[in-house]
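Suppose a classmate hands you a notebook page containing two proteins, each written out with its sequence and a corresponding row of structure tokens. How would you begin to make sense of it? This section walks through that situation. The first entry is reproduced here exactly as it would appear on such a page.
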Amino acid sequence: MKKTILSLSLILFATLGFSQILKPVKIDSLVTVSLPANYTKKDTLGQRIYQGTASMGFITVLRAQNAANNKPLNKEKDLKKVFNTFADGIQKQSRNGSIMNPRDTTIGNLEARVFTLRVDNSGSTGEAAQLRKFILLYTQDVTYTFEYYYPEARTELAKAELNQFSSSIKVAPDLKRNDQYISNAKGLSTPVKVGLYGGLPLIIIIVLVTIRRKKRLAAEG
């Protein structure tokens, strides 16, 4: 999947021209995102690929069906491992790429990972640096990748369109955190742990004293 994402993103920007208005497109019954009117759609090997040339950048959306034997994630930390593995894989494929500004965010009820890959080939090819903004959304059944690819020189000009694209990602309200990982438990806070475990010996003492008192009363009776 990662190799597909990388190859799809290596697009020359000579074709960028007329302004494109982004319009909502249903990726499936659960996810919607706004794309340029000229977008193309391709189905291949369990992946659905949407691509389109916007005013300031090139947009790719990838919907990849997870393997049938894919094991459900147990905890939130397992989801973060998936995010980190994905970002590391993208960076390793790019010889001169570096990850910038990685952060977690939420889309609807789900957790997502946002990061930018900066690719600078100026030393070898003389090309201007390119930026690739990734938004990764993982569920147990499907992984969604949203990408906006643009020259670094257009950063300020692309800002509004990038924000429009990023904020247009919508997920169905019935998608919950347990569609990403099984346990929603966050664990007990430190004060609660202290209260429970610190009070445990006292509870045991009270129980023992009560049992002895009942035995003594029974013997006296």
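The notebook's second entry, a different protein, reads as follows.
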Amino acid sequence: MPRPRIPVSHTLASLTALCTEEGDCLIWPSIGPQRKKITRPTVFHGGVRQSVRRLFAALRGDPQALAEQARLAEPGYWAATCGDPHCMAAAHTERRTRAQHMDNARTRANSGATNLIRIAKIAKSQRERRGKLTEAQIAAICNSPLGIEKEAQVHGVSPALIARLRRRNPAKAAGTVWAGLGRRAQA
């Protein structure tokens, strides 16, 4: 029989002991549940997973954080202002409303460096999205005496593509699934 879990209740001293000091920042070492892509630091306190920043604020006596913990107020977003997402220092923590938090995220997403990286990634993926065969290769495939399998290996494409090219039947995209079925029924 498994041993029952005893809920851990943290204190300000126990949370601070888990952090490391880096300059003015108080850095939290772990990042929450690994199965999700959550980078917001979280911890179990009293059997409930919650934001470490909000818990720090509640233990320091912040009335807004205490009201959120007691579920008397709308939960806010406790964010670091220094730029390090794992900073828990009181001077670097602020509470934001949902609108403020989304405005901040939008500003970061549209900043010059992030936007340039995103534009470069989009441009790279668009350049890579092209056919594998040139017009000269297609003409050579149509006139080649090799079999379909060997021709597919030579050009690095599927045998179905070689067969379709030899039938001189290019791929036609149907507008919808039903349009494609209707075209088959008419044939």
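A careful reader of the second entry would note: The longest strand covers residues 42-45.
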